[in-house]
Write a structure and sequence with these properties.
The chain is built from five helices and 13 strands. With 196 residues, it is an alpha+beta fold. The strands form five sheets. The chain has a four-stranded antiparallel β-sheet, with no helix packed on it. Strands 4-3-5 form a three-stranded antiparallel β-sheet. Strands 8-9 form a two-stranded antiparallel sheet. Helices cover 26% and strands 28% of the residues.
Length: 196
């Protein structure tokens, strides 16, 4: 677990020992801030100055930040951030989430092509929003067209991995995806699937 503690005159940020969850420090002319994802403070005019290492502890004040405990470069960031719940324009370890997702599936397509396993399908699709950059990466590298046969509808439904039982998770997934029948009927496609 990463931890943030507010004192009377400072904020203490501690990244977990394995470096699974990021903590970044931002700066603008009037002070410093921290966030678990860089996009949160970039919209407010802050620039990233430092990403805590695994086990690192920093103390922030309006005038700067100082190391209370050195961290380790041996980080094991949560893979789920890269593939699913990291915000697309967040940046971890100097790489944007969107770029990583696209790159991952370019590599998959290269591997499939090299091994003679490229599927014979009409197109590649991404399910849901987090699956779209994966599908784009696969489509761009494989030469198979990209399409969106499933559109996500989210205003009233939570993330499908949140409910405690499988039948409710299935119901949420069903209600969140709206099919585009013209892109589904009599078509073959592969989905670069992430959680709904």
């Amino acid at each position: 677990m990463s931890l943030v503690i507010m004192t009377q005159d400072a904020i203490i940020c501690a990244r977990d020992r394995q470096g699974r969850l990021p903590i970044l420090i931002g700066k603008r002319s009037d002070g410093y801030c921290f966030s678990f994802e860089s996009f949160a403070y970039q919209k407010l005019g802050y620039d990233t100055r430092h990403e805590l290492k695994a086990g690192e502890i920093q103390q922030l004040t309006k005038d700067g930040y100082q190391v209370l405990r050195e961290g380790s470069d041996a980080m094991r960031i949560c893979t789920f951030l890269w593939t699913y719940y990291g915000y697309p324009n967040a940046c971890y370890e100097g790489v944007s989430v969107e770029a990583m997702r696209t790159r991952n599936d370019k590599i998959m397509a290269e591997t499939d092509r090299k091994n003679g396993r490229l599927p014979d399908v009409d197109y590649v699709c991404g399910v849901t929003d987090s699956g779209i950059p994966h599908a784009i990466g696969y489509a761009n590298k494989s030469g198979i067209p990209f399409a969106r046969p499933f559109i996500k509808y989210t205003p009233t439904w939570p993330r499908s991995f949140m409910p405690t039982n499988q039948s409710m998770r299935n119901q949420v997934a069903k209600m969140k995806l709206i099919p585009v029948h013209e892109l589904i009927e009599e078509k073959t496609f592969i989905c670069r699937w992430q959680h709904c």
